[in-house]
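Task card 7
Instruction: Convert sequence to structure tokens.
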Amino acid sequence: MPERNYGAEIDSLKKDINEIKEMLKGGKTEEETSDDDHVDRQCGSGSAEKIEDMPYNKVLNSLMERIQGECEADGSTGRVVYTGCFASGGRQSVWIGQYSNDNLLKLIEDRSAEKVLNCIGSGDKLNIMLSLLRKPMTVAQIVSEGGFNSTGQVYHHLNALIAADLVMEDPNSNKGTYIIAPYRVQGIIMLLSGISDMIEGDFGTEQSWY
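Output:
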């Protein structure tokens, strides 16, 4: 069996995603549909039916066909391909990448997922993260705008988020101003995207289970 050229595969994937980005910049084409045009297919148990002719764009169809084919070829559980942008507080975070589903499942096996979810799972910590996603804030601002009772309450949860490397002092502002660590914004937004999928089930996506 010939050895796979993972570098070439990644380069080709980046090219596809860049085409998607350019397509999104230029607005919708006639081949695209609105978020309301969701189609949910239920395939028969045990079948190998693929999702075909997704109602978005030829580039997306090509990308989906490729990752489904790779999944069949290597016997893996597949992969997640993603691109996104988040802008807030005068900052912008953009990302492109892919994850192996097999590696994602290992996060449950080694309890990494449990540790992260336990760290951010309280309402107070989530409210602090929400405040800092909207803009850089001091502790006093978090207390005032986040509905907390005291600075001590905020520091208790803020210190845990700092220790988990999710929050940091803003290097571009005065000491005591906090932000979500820029390299964690992607993960938080992607986590919320996954939660939205679990709540809504069909929120802006095409899904199939067989």
